[in-house]
Amino acid sequence: MSDFSTHHFSAQDGTRIHYRRYGDRARAGTPVLCLAGLTRNSRDFDKLATRLGKDRLVLCPDYRGRGQSAHADYRTYAPGNYISDVMHLLAVEDIHRVIVIGTSLGGLLAMALTVAIPAALAGLVINDVGPDISADGQTRILDYVGVDQRHATLEKAAEAMRETYGAAFPDWTAEDWLTNAAGTYTRDAVANNWKLDYDLKLRDALAEQAKSGALPDLWALFRGLAHLPALLVHGALSDVLKAETVARMQREKPDMELVTLDNRGHAPSMTEPACLPRILAFLERCDDTGHH
Predict the structure, then answer these.
(1) Distant-in-sequence, close-in-space partners of 87: CB < 8 Å, separation ≥ 6
(2) pTM of the predicted model, to two decimals?
(3) Kindly report the CA angle at 258 between 257 and 264, in degrees rounded to 5?
(4) How far is residue 271's CA from residue 248's CA, in Å, rounded to a whole number?
(5) Would you give the DSSP letter of residue 66?
(6) Per residue of the chain (292 residues), what is the pLDDT tens digit?
(7) Beta strands in the chain (DSSP E)
(8) Of 260, 251, 208, 258, the residue nearest 232 (C-alpha)
(9) Residues 6+ apart with CB under 8 A from 88
C-alpha cells in the first residue's frame, strides 16, 4: 500500500511544483530523489518509492507542466529549469546529500546535477538512458509527445498502451497496464474522458529546442559521475539505450554497476525481481561509504 504525502512549492518564476514525499528524514538512509521521464510524473515511482520509504526519505517531484504541477509558459519546459526546480525542492526540504534515481530524461538530469551540485550527490541510479540516445528512440518519442490522445475509460487507455508498447513489456499483466495507464492519463470531467496528464505544449518546447542548435556534450556530463557510486539499469529490449552505449559507459566508468533486464524495454519500473534487490543493496552501499 502506498504511503506518501503531497506537497507543493513555488519555483523561482512562481510556477507551482508538486511532489510526493515517502518515508521521513528520521529514517537512517540517505534521502532519495526520483526524477521521471519526459512526459511522466511522480506516480511512476509509487511502488519503488513505497519500498524505499521504509528506510529513508524519498522525494518524487512532478516536473513543471506534468502531473499535479502547474502548466507554465511552454518555453520554460527546458532542462535548465527542471534542474533549477529540483535544486529548489532540495532547498525547501533542507536536504544537503541525496541519491538520485533518474529514468530517461530524469537520468540525464541526474548527470547534469553532478555538475550543478556535485557535493550534494551521494550516488546515482540511471534508468535506461545514456549519453547517446538512439535515433529510433528519439524518433518514437518525438512522434508521440504532444499528441492529444483521449479514451472513454481508463481500461481503454490501458489497452491502447498495451497495443503500442506491449513489445517492451512482454510479461506485463492487465493489472500492470491499468496501473501504467493510471499514471499516464487523468480524468477530464468536462469532456467526460481520459486525457494525457501533461501539457501538450511540451511538443512546441521540444521543437523550439531542436531548432536552437546542437545538444550539449552528454558524455562530458557523464564524466561528472567519475567519483560517484553509480548503478545503470538497462532494458535489453530498449530502443533508447543501446548495448553499444552501455559498453562505452562501462569503459568510461569501469566501477559502474550494471543491471540488464532481458525481458524489458524502455523503461524498466526498477521494481522487477531482478532489479529491486540490486537497487536496495546499492543504496545501502551509498549509505555506508561516507557519501552521505
Answers:
(1) 113, 116, 117
(2) 0.96
(3) 155
(4) 26
(5) B
(6) 668 999 999 999 999 999 999 998 888 899 999 999 999 999 999 999 999 999 999 999 999 999 999 999 999 999 999 999 999 999 999 999 999 999 999 999 999 999 999 999 999 999 999 999 877 877 888 888 999 999 999 999 999 999 999 999 999 999 999 999 999 999 999 999 999 999 999 999 998 888 887 677 899 999 999 999 999 999 999 999 999 999 999 999 999 999 999 999 999 999 999 999 999 999 999 998 754 3
(7) 4-10, 16-22, 32-35, 58-61, 98-103, 121-127, 150-151, 185-188, 193-196, 230-235, 257-261
(8) 258
(9) 9, 11, 12, 17
290: left (phi over 0), alpha (psi -120 to 50) or beta: left
- Rg of the chain taking only CA atoms, in angstroms: 18
Alpha-carbon distance 29 to 27, whole Å?
A: 6
Tell me, rounded to whole angstroms, the distance of Cα 36 from its chain centroid: 2
User: What's the DSSP call for residue 225?
Assistant: G
Contacts of 277 (CB under 8 A, 6+ apart): none
- Could you tell me the three cell numbers for 28? 537512517
Residue 260 has, within 13 A of its CA and on its CB side, a CA count of: 10
